[in-house]
Amino acid sequence: MSQTIAVLKGDGIGPEIMEASLRVLDALDCDLTYEFHDAGLAALDKHGTLVPPETLAAIATHRVALKGPLTTPIGKGFSSINVQLRRHFELYANVRPAISFPGTRSRYDNIDLITVRENTEGAYLAEGQSLSEDGETALSSIRVTRSGSERIVRYAFELARQKGRQKVTAVHKANIIKTSSGLFLEVAREVARDYPEIEFQEMIVDNACMQLVMNPNQFDVIVTTNLFGDILSDLCAGLVGGLGLAPGSNIGSEVAIFEAVHGSAPDIAGKKIANPCALLLAAADMLDHLGMVEKGAKIRGGIREVLENDREQVTPDMGGNGTTDTFADALVKVVRR
């Protein structure tokens, strides 16, 4: 039976990389139907809002969305579109794989790790932030709940079990932030006891940063709170060549949104040189979520093959002379075999 997904093309380079990604999905005969909806700057121009109600309704109806990079205008009272979507749909788990691919600027080989970041609480809440009238003192609260911590840690262990991973590392700062980070660590220890077959490790966040730079292969699945996860997942992307290879999944109990993590890159929009790999990898994760694991693996394997054997078709940021379209052409040929 055909699966309908909501598609948000995005701003800047978004429409270009989305077109490339949908071509690859079509070449795999995924039996997907695309329903296109506006968000970001295009929606603001057309509807007067960054995320129209029609877009939210479509995502809720279809339960799965593929999203290109969206631009939130700076200032003018606009809040982050990504934060809006995460809160609206209670997308509590942000999942960021970091996988080595050939022919990239990575300093390491054979990296294959996943960061699982709590997505809805922690240090990123707008509530509890204030600035004194004289502008001299800013205050911000960190809200961590037992239920939110239990939910994200259990998600990480279930993901590890599903994907045959051997270890989960809980990253924290409980030695200093003894309340919020301490609660997260306490819950992580409790949940870990339910998964005796998976090794559990706990690591202070500053040490985790150093260890990731020195020896990233020691990590398998990392689970952590919102702020630490935001930082660590970008660090991990840097280990494998940058955000151009960084997909993200935002998972809730009812809805899942898959996205390229990088920005909309308006400086190269329309030049057809944008690297589509992050959105393609997000599409592969979406296929896994929909139960089409073999097709998701085919995208990842195809990207690896093109990067290794067809360098002329690769986009300039990865050292090639190709375009967004030539990369998609090469990948379509591979996945159709």
UniProtKB/TrEMBL annotation:
SMART domains: Iso_dh (SM01329). Its EC number is 1.1.1.41. One of its GO terms (molecular function) is NAD binding. Keywords: Oxidoreductase. Coiled coil: none annotated. It is an enzyme of class 1 (oxidoreductase). InterPro entries: IsoCit/isopropylmalate_DH_CS, IsoPropMal-DH-like_dom. SUPFAM superfamilies: Isocitrate/Isopropylmalate dehydrogenase-like (SSF53659). One of its GO terms (biological process) is isocitrate metabolic process. Residues 4-331 form the Isopropylmalate dehydrogenase-like domain. It comes from the Bacteria. It holds the Pfam family Iso_dh. PANTHER family: DECARBOXYLATING DEHYDROGENASES-ISOCITRATE, ISOPROPYLMALATE, TARTRATE, ISOCITRATE DEHYDROGENASE [NAD] SUBUNIT ALPHA, MITOCHONDRIAL. Belongs to the isocitrate and isopropylmalate dehydrogenases family. This is Isocitrate dehydrogenase. It comes from Halomonas urmiana.
